[in-house]
Amino acid sequence: MESSSSAPEVPTNTNVTAHRPSTPPPDSHISPPLSLTYWRSTPPTVSGMLGGFPQVSATDLRGSYAFIRKLFPEQSFPPLQPQPQTRQNGRELRGRRKPADATGNTGNVQLLKRAVDCGAGIGRVTRGLLARVAEKVDVVEPVEEFASVVRRHAHDEHNSSLPDGSGKVGEIFVCGLEDWGPSPSAPRAHGKGSESGGEGYDLIWNQWCLGHLRDLPLTQYLSRASLALAPGGFIVVKENISTDPMGRDMYDEVDSSVTRTEGKWEKVFGEAGLAVVRREVQGGFESGLGLMPVVMWALRPKGPIGNGG
Predict the structure, then answer these.
(1) Is 17 helix (H, G, I), strand (E, B) or coil?
(2) Largest alpha-carbon pair distance within the chain?
């Protein structure tokens, strides 16, 4: 699942119940064991990760890639998809205009040092997006069967299953985000390490998974994650937005998750000490699919250190 305890990536407007003043808040119904039961019964396929909508994957990845490029305009990332084959000295090169150096980077490519895919599922975003923008991509995923798919794609040190010019899969943490504890890293600027692998993250990616966390654990998780950012790094949240006509959060009993309003998201960000640096709506999904709106936020800690306020 692409989750924290994971949520179907693209839930539709069905199977959801809005919060009414006389009822408990929707997030109080969230049950991590029920979420895990749902996902353990889900096929480890792109269709399974996307709730039966595999056709949205390419559009989703393109939108995310464009968003990341705006966050890091000084970087030079390879194309999201490999370029057509060319030949140099009798050897085929995929997606390269120059030979790669020992790290796998090309002369005209500058990747981020480190990213993490939180609620990664089978690695759709890990391999299809984050490995195109970062030298090393860690993974957090609570379902062992899904994590094993990521491992199979990262079984050798060269990660030969990834397109040329890509980064490598790093640490794989089999746990939910509520249990994942990246240590305060004071990252590369001070040379200290962290429990999550050694140096701070340039990009902490959270997509279609945070609906499995209740409001308080979500706030606590985002606050912890902010301490693991490298200087200049971002936390990105990409999630569905509630379509309740009364502007309320909606609980989905099928996978035990909550779809929050945009106002609720902004409230959570503020309580976690984060400021919104950039916000965009994902476009390009077919209108006939009945999908919820999807919003991307780029976040940094408030104040001069994080340049968020």
Answers:
(1) strand
(2) 72
Residues 6+ apart with CB under 8 A from 14: none
Task: Please name the residue that has the structure tokens 């609720």.
Answer: 264
pLDDT per residue as tens digits for the range 163-214? 555 679 999 999 999 999 886 554 333 333 334 445 899 999 999 999 999 9
Taking alpha carbons only, the member of 11, 107, 125 closest to residue 68 is 125
Q: What is the pLDDT of residues 203-215, one digit of tens each?
A: 999 999 999 999 9
Amino acid occupying residue 177: L
Report which secondary-structure segment, H or E, holds 216: helix 215-226
Element (H, E) at 218: helix 215-226
* Residues 219-230 pLDDT 10s: 999 999 999 999
CB of 132 within 8 A of CB of 159?
no
CB neighbourhood size of 208 (10 A): 28
- Which one, of 10, 9, 135, 161, lies nearest residue 78 by Cα? 135
CB burial readout 6-32, b (16+ within 10 A) else e: bbbbbbbeeebbbbeeeeebbbebbeb
Joined tokens for residue 159 = 């990660």
Please state the pTM of the whole predicted model: 0.82
Structure tokens at 30: 């969230």
